[in-house]
Amino acid sequence: MSRLLWLTALTLRLSATLRPMQGAVAQERAPEAVQQDAVASDATAEATHQVSRLISQKFGVARAKAEQISAAVMSAASKYSLPPAIISVESRFKEKARGANGATGLMQVVPAAHKQLVRNIDLTEATANIEAGSAILTVMSNPLAVTWARP
Length: 151
What we know:
The chain has one domain (2-149). 67% of the residues lie in helices and 0% in strands. The chain contains seven helices and no strands. It has helices at residues 2-22, 31-59, 63-80, 86-91, 115-118, 126-141, 143-149.
């Protein structure tokens, strides 16, 4: 439990680091801004490494797979502004986890409830499941996103 709390604290710290970078505009920037981005990138890489080490130690995931999951988690966390710790609650980092109502994979995505979003997606593949689950959580937390997501 203390490792889960540590992961949550790390997530909050990482989110605070990543949030200023999300709205960056691709223009010529001052050297100080470039240096700040480099420091933030190093912090992100270190946080990703720490998370992968924790996934490997706490949940018994192979090191290479933990690195892949950690990178996907951090990418989705940054893209969708979600805490990476939510995955450990959902599946304990088991890619092929099955839950109630057909919930599948790391993020426990329910294909029947999200047919349009998960059509032709292998939900047992870590990166695809994390991306789909993060998108679903974002849509669920932002009702306006449902309007924009429809064709």
